[in-house]
């Protein structure tokens, strides 16, 4: 596994240049709380074994291959639809883990535009933007990676049409024309993809069919936001079909600068994807995916709660108020890629191979701490690493520049087989290579009368390979034994470090930190780590009655080591972080009754962490022979931690005519079991005590959706109400300012259109209460609390037309 051949073959990729410049289905509401989408979603990852409808009913029979999906034409004048066989529904129901699914129609009606948004309606999942740009932090049941920089993949694997997206930037704009999003809980990597500790999020787009059809949509909403999107399905020949999807959104920002009146949080996003399906023969096909994204919006800015005279917005600011100044945050990102999927069905099983490569380039200016005014400070000239001195009254500057180029390549192939009717086997191999080259610069006021510029120039490369096996053995007619295993090999390489420069008439007043010279290096790493790991899963699944399953599993997962690529003043803050290990115990029950009109699901779990990777906030003395202290973030590990909790969900479809209800509830008790007193070179104040709460683990969260249809002659009016609530949570350890608010949001929607589904018109409001909770907060470089605020009340309308 450590062969030079592998390393050389992947290094060839480093020579590649940087990338340059559905219908109103009332039965589908909030499948985020259920593994069952009432036959409206296509599975996006493999099950423990492909259970057919017959097996779900009898507990005995299994199909020789996964049932094929039929290409069906949309009815004339009706909404474009994709028929999904009943076995897909039962596959999710019988899978021995929690799988939460949201359909494409639900994404549209709930206005969920990117993977981060689905956390609002998926129990036990959190996602938040930790910076003004595109670097969301994901967590499932408290498992993730609390790194705001965006160069590291957390404990969650995110797949777009089967292709791993290792860096957050690859998610940008690609939630368009989506068929379903499935969130699988617990350690994954036994039947596809990379090994993960927390789970996976699988986004599947609508695939081409052999009939002409599509839709066009236009929407207008608050802050002069216009959105246009369309998808068109075109058969080219009897064996070639194509689907083109497009999305564009542009709008003014909802934040306003207290000094200049400029607006922030504006959108200017373009995304396009083309899928071409080639039918080779009756048993095999090839799917070609080409996609591109461009984002030139103006980022949101956090609020710094210092006084306006010192560059903040005051202790009790207007929720729309920021103080950024005349060098505003901006975003200039673009990227794209291509993937190829090949599927071949045999009498004994199905072979699948997916290969993809993606590039992404970004150059963003980010007002990271919300600080807009520095008396006698520095104006940043266009985001360069040098700054000009400006004496006198306060001036403005943007204090973070994210300048990087990322490339990611991955390949997964597996064979699923049903052998001797009682033994079901999946064998596969996964490999990925990703590289990111960047210059991250922090402009900060570190001493009165002076400015310190820190730049981390780095190159990071990751190689991951794995071989996995997943088996299901039918012990009796109703009892199945599950056994899975995976061997993984990973390499992590990093070459870079932070350099120091200062500007200002009095700089440096107390001496450069650690005697660093102007433009000199504070720290540097040039190293590579490699390791091998075995992970596995065993469990039992029992069919109580047809449509009702109970299961119990024990599994373990691991996440590869990481590097902290932020520009840091503390020499010890740039260091390697060891791999994370997790042992997970889970029991649960799933039931679909009354012909899928009532779906119930519940699970209890107990997670034990070893070397849990997390973000720490500490202090150090940057100047020799001085009592001056400075703050620094760094990645580190918690030797032992434990998370216990439970999830419950229910779905009622049409038990009361025309009424659908969905609801979910999650509880997390995430605690640190090994106290952390200090980190190399940093002081933790306060220290991390025994039984402290883990970051990104809200104790309680719940959501609900109600949808009611009113039929008047040939028209249907649909009324929808949705509500989501999440408890407060920590964002970093050792930072008393890094605690979010309790976040809640009430949404209403009214939709009208003919029963044929030819068109629909809707009006809606999100965050009806106009809540202004803090979704992410931290101590800024000026020592004050900085916070990102919940998006305000949003009112809009949209018109959807099917052809």
Automatic annotation (TrEMBL):
Its main location: membrane. It is found in: Cell outer membrane. It comes from the Bacteria. Keywords: Cell outer membrane, Ion transport, Iron, Iron transport, Membrane, Receptor, Signal, TonB box, Transmembrane, Transmembrane beta strand, Transport. GO terms for biological process: iron ion transport. Residues 95-199 form the TonB-dependent receptor plug domain. GO terms for cellular component: cell outer membrane. Residues 58-73 have a biased composition (Basic residues). It is a multi-pass membrane protein. Belongs to the TonB-dependent receptor family. PANTHER family: FERRICHROME IRON RECEPTOR-RELATED, TONB-DEPENDENT OUTER MEMBRANE RECEPTOR. This is TonB-dependent receptor. The lineage of its organism: Bacteria, Pseudomonadati, Pseudomonadota, Alphaproteobacteria, Acetobacterales.
């Amino acid at each position: 596994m450590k062969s030079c051949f592998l390393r050389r073959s992947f290094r060839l990729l480093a020579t590649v240049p940087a990338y340059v410049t559905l219908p109103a289905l009332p039965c589908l509401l909030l499948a985020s709380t259920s593994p069952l989408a009432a036959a409206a979603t296509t599975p996006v990852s493999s099950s423990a074994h492909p259970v057919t409808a017959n097996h779900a009913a009898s507990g005995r029979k299994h199909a020789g291959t996964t049932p094929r999906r039929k290409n069906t034409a949309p009815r004339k004048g009706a909404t474009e639809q994709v028929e999904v066989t009943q076995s897909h529904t039962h596959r999710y129901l019988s899978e021995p883990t929690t799988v939460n699914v949201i359909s494409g129609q639900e994404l549209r009606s709930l206005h969920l535009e990117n993977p981060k948004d689905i956390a609002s309606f998926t129990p036990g999942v959190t996602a938040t933007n930790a910076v003004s740009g595109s670097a969301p932090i994901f967590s499932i049941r408290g498992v993730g990676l609390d790194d705001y920089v965006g160069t590291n993949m957390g404990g969650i694997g995110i797949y777009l049409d089967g292709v791993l997206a290792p860096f957050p930037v690859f998610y940008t704009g690609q939630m368009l024309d989506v068929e379903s999003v499935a969130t699988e809980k617990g350690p994954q990597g036994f039947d596809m993809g990379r090994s993960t500790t927390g789970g996976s999020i699988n986004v599947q787009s609508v695939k081409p069919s052999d009939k002409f059809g599509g839709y066009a949509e236009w929407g207008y909403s608050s802050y002069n936001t216009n959105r246009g999107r369309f998808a068109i399905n075109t058969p080219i020949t009897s064996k070639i079909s194509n689907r083109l999807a497009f999305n564009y959104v542009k709008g003014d920002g909802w934040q306003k600068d207290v000094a200049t009146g400029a607006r922030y949080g504006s959108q200017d996003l373009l995304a396009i994807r083309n899928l071409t399906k080639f039918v080779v023969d009756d048993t095999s096909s090839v799917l070609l995916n080409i996609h591109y994204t461009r984002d030139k919006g103006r980022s949101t800015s956090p609020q710094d709660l210092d006084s306006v005279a010192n560059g903040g917005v005051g202790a009790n600011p207007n929720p729309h108020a920021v103080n950024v100044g005349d060098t505003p945050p901006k975003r200039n990102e673009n990227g794209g890629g291509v993937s190829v999927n090949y599927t071949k069905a045999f009498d004994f099983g199905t072979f699948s191979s997916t290969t993809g490569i993606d590039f992404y380039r970004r150059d963003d200016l980010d007002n990271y701490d919300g600080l807009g005014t520095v008396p006698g400070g520095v104006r940043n000239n266009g985001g360069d690493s040098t700054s000009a001195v400006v004496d006198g009254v306060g001036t403005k500057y943007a204090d973070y520049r994210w300048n990087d180029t990322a490339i990611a390549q991955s390949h997964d192939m597996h064979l699923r087989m049903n052998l001797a009717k009682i033994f079901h086997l999946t064998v596969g191999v996964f490999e990925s290579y990703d590289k990111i080259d960047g210059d991250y610069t922090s402009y900060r006021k570190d001493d009165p009368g002076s400015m310190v510029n820190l730049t981390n120039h780095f190159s990071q490369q990751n190689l991951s390979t794995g071989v996995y096996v997943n088996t299901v053995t039918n012990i009796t007619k109703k009892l199945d034994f599950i056994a899975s295993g995976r061997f993984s090999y990973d390499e992590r390489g990093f070459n870079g470090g932070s350099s120091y420069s200062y500007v200002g008439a009095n700089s440096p007043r107390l001496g450069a930190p650690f005697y660093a010279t102007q433009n000199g290096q504070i720290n540097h790493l040039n190293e590579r780590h490699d390791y091998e790991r075995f992970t596995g899963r065993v469990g039992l699944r029992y069919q109580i009655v047809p449509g009702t399953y109970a299961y119990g599993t024990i599994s373990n997962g691991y996440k590869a080591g990481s590097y902290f690529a932020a520009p840091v003043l503390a020499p010890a803050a740039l260091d390697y972080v060891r791999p994370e290990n997790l042992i997970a115990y889970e029991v649960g029950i799933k039931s679909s009754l009354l012909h899928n009109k009532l779906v119930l699901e519940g699970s209890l779990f107990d997670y034990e962490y070893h070397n849990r990777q997390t973000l720490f906030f500490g202090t150090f003395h940057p100047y020799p022979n001085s009592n001056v202290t400075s703050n620094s973030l760094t990645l580190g590990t918690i030797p032992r931690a434990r998370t216990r909790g439970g999830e419950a969900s229910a779905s009622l479809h049409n038990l009361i005519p025309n009424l659908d209800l969905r609801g979910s509830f999650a509880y997390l008790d995430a605690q640190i079991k090994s106290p952390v007193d200090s980190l190399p070179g940093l002081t933790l104040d306060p220290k991390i005590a025994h039984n402290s709460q883990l970051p990104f683990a809200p104790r309680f969260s719940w959501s609900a959706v109600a949808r009611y249809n009113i039929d008047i002659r040939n028209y249907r009016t649909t009324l929808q109400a949705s509500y989501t609530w999440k408890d407060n949570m920590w964002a970093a350890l050792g930072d008393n300012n890094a605690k979010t608010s309790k976040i809640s949001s009430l949404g209403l929607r009214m939709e009208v259109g003919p029963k044929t589904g030819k068109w629909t018109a809707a009006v809606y409001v999100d965050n009806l209460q106009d809540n202004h909770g803090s979704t992410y907060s931290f101590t800024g470089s000026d020592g004050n609390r900085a916070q990102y605020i919940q998006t305000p009340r949003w009112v809009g309308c949209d018109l959807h037309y099917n052809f």
